[in-house]
Amino acid sequence: MKPLRPYERFDTLRQFLEHDKHVLRFYGVWDDTENMFGDVRELVLHYFLADDTIEIKEVTPMNSGRDAVPLFLNRQKLPKYAPVGLYQPGTITSRTVLNVFGGLVGNKGRFILDNCKTGAVHQEFYKDCDLRIGSVINVWGRRIVLCDCDEFTKEYYRTKYGVKDFIPVPYKAPPPPKVEKQIPPYNGFGSEEDSLCSCTGLLPKPPQKDFKKFMEKDRQGLESNILRFLAQFITTDPIDKERKFIISYFLSDDTISVFEPPQRNTGILGGKFLERLRVPKPGQELFKSEMSEYYMAQDLYIGAKVCFHGHVFLVVDADEYSFNYMEKHANEASCAFQSLFGL
Q1: What 8-state DSSP symbol labels residue 145?
Q2: Do domains 13-81+123-160 and 224-341 have the same CATH topology?
């Protein structure tokens, strides 16, 4: 007679089909500061509902000096109590085999499975019910504190176990105070942008210009995109009071040039009075870390008083092109538009 062999049936297929690709994610920390050169290390724990296995990944911050290890713990069933030593081969097994008749294998031996699992080592593994925010789990002798979880995990525990308290445990250190970047002061050579570019790298690069503005406001056919104003000195000197100047503002790069038309029998030679450049507003410190404030198109209108390097001018008139431009772009030159039309 053939004896009945009491096979055990492990119904793992149903659990796999119901919870395949369902993973619980917890965020935790391992405080290793008690050891030499140890620190607090952030971990991410994944619990696979399909087969009750756990894997742990370490979050390696930048410039930490640690190698980027793929996994802190390979995917496996995690026992609650770490063994003292290593088990012998065959000690931990799901089934126990009994030799009931015969000798060696292949010599007409008879074997059955022990349903009582006599002599087997029973281990208690972590389940989903053991994982909570704030709980401490033992990962082969390392105490890991679970501090937070994702939304899927919260919904899973809320549905299955009725858990409603998901207050995270603060585990991240506060960010270090932000150190403000100190820009060296202007050295006096070239423009302020050139001085700033010489401090951003070992190989100085020329400052980048606003190419889009240059293409939109550069000379295009009959459109010169240059605003010209007539100005005169604000002074008590009777000779300088009669001098006339033409202030040209270039919209493509916000530069200003001043030209003095020659006048007969004045004793003053006309010509270029100010080279084309960006003119800073008066009352600013020269050698400082902050960028200076320069004259813009909104600062030039009829009746405006401007100071170019110590010379104070009064704008008294403008050409026809400037009038048309300021009328079309009233939002850019609001003061000029209001002055022209008395608004």
Answers
A1: E
A2: yes
| CATH T-level topology, domain 13-81+123-160 | PH-domain like (2.30.29)
Find out whether 30 and 10 touch, Cβ atoms under 8 Å: no
CA angle 43, 56, 170 (to 5 degrees): 25
Please name which of 148, 150, 151 lies closest in space to residue 169, comparing C-alpha atoms.
148
Residue 343 has which token pair? 């608004």
What would the two tokens of residue 165 be? 């308290």
CB 135, CB 149: distance < 8 Å: no
Q: Which residues pair with 314 in a beta bridge?
A: 232, 305
**Terminal CA-to-CA distance of the chain, rounded, Å?**
117
Taking the domains of the chain in order of start, what are their residue ranges?
13-81+123-160, 224-341
pLDDT by residue (tens digit) across 196-244? 888 888 888 888 888 888 888 888 888 888 999 999 998 888 888 889 9
CATH code: domain 224-341 is: 2.30.29.170
Q: Inter-axis angle of helices 320-328 and 334-341, to 10 degrees?
A: 110
CA distance 45 to 316: 76
Q: How far is CA 49 from CA 12, 21, 25, 52, 314, in A?
A: 11, 8, 11, 5, 81
Residue with tokens 């320069």: 294
Q: Which two tokens stand for residue 88?
A: 């012998």
Q: What are the pLDDT digits (tens) for 146-168?
A: 999 999 999 999 999 999 889 99
Q: pLDDT digits over 77-132, tens only?
A: 999 887 767 777 767 776 677 766 665 555 566 667 666 767 677 788 999 999 99
Which pair of tokens denotes residue 318? 């403008």
**Do 66 and 43 contact (CB within 8 A), yes or no?**
no
Which letter does DSSP use for residue 291 in this model?
P
Host H or E run for residue 213: helix 211-217
